[in-house]
Amino acid sequence: MTARFSQGSSEPTVSTGRRAAAPFQTALLACVALLLSSGGTLRGAADAADLRVRGNSDAPVTLIEYSDFTCGYCLKFFRETWPRIQAKYVETGKVRFVYRDYPRADQGPGVDAAIAARCAGDQGRYWAMHDRLFADGGRLDATTFDRHAKALGLDTASFSACMRDGRHVDSIFHDRQEGARWGFRGTPGFVLMPTGRGGDTAVMIPGAFPYQVFEEEIERLLARVRPRGKGGA
User: Fold this and answer.
1) Could you give the CA distance from residue 63 to residue 191 in angstroms, rounded to a whole number?
2) What is the pLDDT of residue 215?
3) Number of C-beta neighbours around residue 128 at 10 A
4) Going by fewer Cβ within 10 Å, which terminus of the chain is more open, N or C?
5) Cα–Cα distance measured from residue 197 to residue 47, given in angstroms and rounded to the nearest whole number
6) Are 100 and 62 in contact (CB under 8 A)?
7) Residue burial 129-162, b: 16+ Cβ < 10 Å; e: rest
8) Closest C-alpha to 144, from 153, 136, 156, 152
9) CA pair distance 57, 60, nearest whole angstrom
10) 98-144: per-residue pLDDT in tens?
11) Would you give the end-to-end CA distance of the chain in angstroms?
């Protein structure tokens, strides 16, 4: 039995084509945790200056998400799973979280939203915009972007110019190509790895699986990289 996901949104399924049911059993966890001895290259995944990183740059484990602001399962992860990962692992310095754009279409609201977040990032407010875009639950248009820019206190003239000039488009699609090299064909897709070790012994989680799946794989990696004699909270 193998894990798979369909083009578009990554909904957990098994090889029979049936939707994976919760609670997840050990056999299903084994299906979705795909251990790789080598993988795609991660541009900037270890770059502490990247504004699309949350958490301690020295955290022993890195979690990368490939995501689309228009993706319903990405929203599900943001609302249900991310807060628990953030509280237990990111805020405690155990996991560093990296966001990568994976717009499913070549143009439209998914790309526009990714640009809006990056344009806010140019003014130091990437995560504030990112969170607002997901919190809006799918309302992604120029009026919404401008409203968020004003609420965040951005220089709206600079923000509008950034939205028009396309300075971030190439980088957004570079992210998508990077995700495709890992084998992702939909969103969300996640890669867990020891920080600074690239594709070595990475773990792929192809879909918006429940928190328990992430917890099990994070704990497994932490146990491998944690110095002997030191436990974790």
Assistant:
1) 6
2) 98
3) 18
4) C
5) 12
6) no
7) bbebbbeeeeebeeebbbebbeebebeeeebbeb
8) 136
9) 9
10) 999 999 999 999 999 999 999 999 999 999 999 999 998 778 999 99
11) 34
List, for the chain, all residue ranges whose pLDDT scores fall below the cut of 50. 1-8, 12-41, 43-49, 228-229, 231-233
What CA dihedral angle connects 41, 27, 94 and 203, to 10 degrees? -10
Q: Half-sphere exposure (CA, 13 Å, Cβ side) for 46?
A: 12
Q: What is the CA radius of gyration of the chain?
A: 18
Pairing type for strands 189-194 and 202-205 reads: antiparallel
Q: What share of the chain is helix, strand, coil (3-state, %, to 5)?
A: 40, 15, 40
Domain boundaries, the chain: 8-107+176-225
What dihedral angle (degrees, nearest 10) is formed by the CA atoms of 193, 121, 113, 47?
A: -20
Peptide bond into 23 cis (omega under 30): yes
156, two tokens: 């709206």
Asked if 140 and 112 touch (Cβ cutoff 8 Å), the reply is yes
Per-residue tokens: 190: 């996640």
Give CA–CA dist 38/199, Å, rounded: 5
Query: Angle at the Cα of 58 (from 35 to 218), degrees rounded to 5?
Result: 30
Regarding beta strands 189-194 and 8-9, do their DSSP bridges make them parallel or antiparallel, or are they unpaired? unpaired
